[in-house]
Amino acid sequence: MSTSEYERMPPVYKLDDYDSCLQKPSDVYCLLHFTLVSDEPSELLQMIERYIYNKTSVSDKTLEGCLNQSFWKEYQLRTKIEHYSCSSLADNEVEIDVADIITGFIVLVLILLNIFGSLYDIYNTNKNEGMLACFFLSFSIKRNWKMLTSTRRSLDPRLQRLKSLNGLRCILAYGVIVVHCVIPYMVAVENVHDYELSYSNIWKHVFFNASLMMQTFIVISGFFLAYKIEISFENQQLNWSMVPKGIIIRYLRLTPAYAFIILLTATWFKFLGPAPLWEFDVFQVTGNIMVSDCRRRWWLNLLYVNNYVYDSQCLLQSWYLAADMQLFCFGLVLCILLKNYRLKRKILTFLFLIGISMVAVHTYIRDLYPIFIIWPSDGSLFFKTDPTFNETYKMGHGNFASYIIGISLGYFVYKWQNKEVNMKKYSTSGEGTSVLKSDLRLFG
Fold first, then answer.
1. Tens of pLDDT along 161-210?
2. Does residue 12 form part of some domain?
3. Domain count within the chain
4. Same domain, 184 and 109
5. Which domain holds residue 251?
């Protein structure tokens, strides 16, 4: 699209100042979604349609009449309202229900436990007093901060050599946060044209295709699962009792904090509103939509199956926890099966091919994008209707191949460390290349 054509079009989004509009109790701020129409053939409307990707005291007629007056005067086009939502100063009075009170009580208990545990840790010299003392010490801010910032070495030097992966995960997590901070601005960005042109900038695709970062997390997760199992069970038998035990331990480690965030979202999050886009369900803004979905379908998140629900909006970003939990359960079973099996390489190769084939076939049949890209239109809807995001990207089987790569790397590194392979010899060409080919046979 040329700049001259873009300037002829009406703005995609236009918002008046929210605070200045709501000065008196009788003032109303309305947000609406409409389509452009014309009673007569319009060259401008035809041009707009060519660029479109085919993928309550206020009445509808009043709003439509107001819009028609301004759009006809400037663009000779009329409007047809599809959805609208209005709010006033009275909406600031949010009703407090039983769930809000229970959440407040839980928050108060946690704060008191943190205070008591911290004081107990500071002033009590004899801390080895049984389970009750350990319980209170687990809430000590002093102790938890010390553990969080600890740089002590692992008992196993092989794990110590891999601590750099934690640094990599920290850097990637920062990148994920940066990308997610950009997404809300897609809802009503003022300069849409410049935003669309940024997709032609190769460097900015680091952000637009940043979804590939998540595959790195999946690979690292699979790597640590296989590698730690190999190390932990070198001198003891790995049996099937480890499957339920491992799943339960992981569930108990992740779920309490996760459940608390869901609880806060379903209750106290509503007190952050209202705002211009708070209740407008067309844009699916992080507001009442997320609150209502967490209240209605919170159990999907706690069962870690929310990533298989097409339009799940309760903590949308938590799809990763669900996918990782599903892959962990499968990976745990797989590692037990492969513990003493000599055909690891063939089995893992076969599973990798199955993983990429599942996504390839699904993508072809459903005519999806091969990779998930943050398009402006889908980003403004928070991906509720994006088929690539909902059908492949966030689902467990859509990340299966990456997890198999991680498990394979775990076995590969473990084999090389046991053989005490000197990595320096691979820094040269010629002989180093032939030695590499020879040592690759170690895997499997």
1. 788 888 888 888 887 887 777 766 666 666 667 777 777 777 777 666 66
2. yes
3. 3
4. no
5. 166-427
